[in-house]
Predict the 3D structure of the following.
Amino acid sequence: MNKTLRISAFAAAVTLGWAAPVHAQTASDAEALRAEMAAMRQQMAAMAAKIDALEGELDATEVKAEQATLAATNATQAAAAASEVKSEVKVAELEKSGGWSFKPFGRLMVDAGTVNAPDSIVDDGLGFANEVRRARIGVTGELGGGFGYKTELEFADNDAEITDAIITYKDGGATISVGQHNNFQGLEELTSSRFISFMERAAFTDAFGFKRRIGVSGQFKTGDATIQAGIFTNNIDDLSSDEDNSYSLDGRFVYAPKIGETQLHLGASAHYRDLNDAANSVRYRARPSVHFTDTRFINTGNIDATSETGFGLEGAVIAGPFHAQAEGYWQTVSRPGLDNPTFFGGAVEAGVYLTKGDTRGYKGNKFDRNKPKNPVGSGGMGAVQLNVRYDYLDLVDAGIVGGMQNAYAASLVWSPTANTRLTVNYTRNEYDMADIAAGLDTDYNVNTFAVRAGFDF
């Protein structure tokens, strides 16, 4: 096509160049014609140059079109492959039909470490130990019409126990839960063990007996505010014991605004438990920052009681790679004919991600999963988080001497992927008026060092 244009232009030039002299009658006319012919030749040369330029542009356009076609083809193939992989994951995790769904989940955590106490203390719980801390599997899903369910079993300690067994109903910002589930005793307790920044929660959660119980609860969320409340009996494994007749009332309020990229969390909780004459005693005690020992250096022993009342305050902030958390809890025991002791526990912690782009997750008024910005397997090293914590527990009041703990802890958490974790934990526990004496001394230090490997799905 381009050659045709050039040939036509040349033919026109030749025709004009030879036809004009035939009609020339004078020298002046001939001279004028020659000038016109020169001008025409210049125009034709310019036209030829322009045609050459158009040819180049056309060739470049054809190359770009071919590249665009190839890129589109590759993108389509990649999208199809990604869609296929996504579909496979979805089929593996969730099958849905008519509003009904079924999604399996689970976790495995294996711990090992040492507990070092003064030589004068002889206890089987000291020295090196290891355990399967958690081995759980469960299912969750929807039943249609706003109803849902969750069931989870724990297989650690060579036994099977029910952790969660819940039926839920959701309508807008309101949720009703029936069955065994967590009551509302603070941020540290409600954050999943998969997402806490140390191997174990702060000591007061263990000491004051926070655990799942059978009950009915409701939650209402509006904007940044959430109210939770419920009535509970006991843990499903204790229903055949004397504690069967006790019941508790629990509530929590959380205000969690997000200011720019900064997540804030402020909350308060309340707990009242009536022992109902059957379970007429309580006991508060705590392990030394690890679970693979049964030794408790601070312990109130059994306290005759009719009820217990607890109040908690909680706060947290997440700003980019940094997070901070503080929580305090007061537990008062009602004793017939005696002074009522009030015990206190609390913790302050801070942490920072050392890997660029990583931040602590937050969802549903509690800490949630961290998803590494550059996970292993995608050219990165995962997420690395460094944390420090001060953990205080006071079990001494109104004649009860259960001991006091000041614990200073540091942890390093490496998450190669969103579902795998390796945690290294060191804690120095300083005890005063300890329940277990080191010879004649009840004031001494205990050091723990532990590691945990875990994954969940």
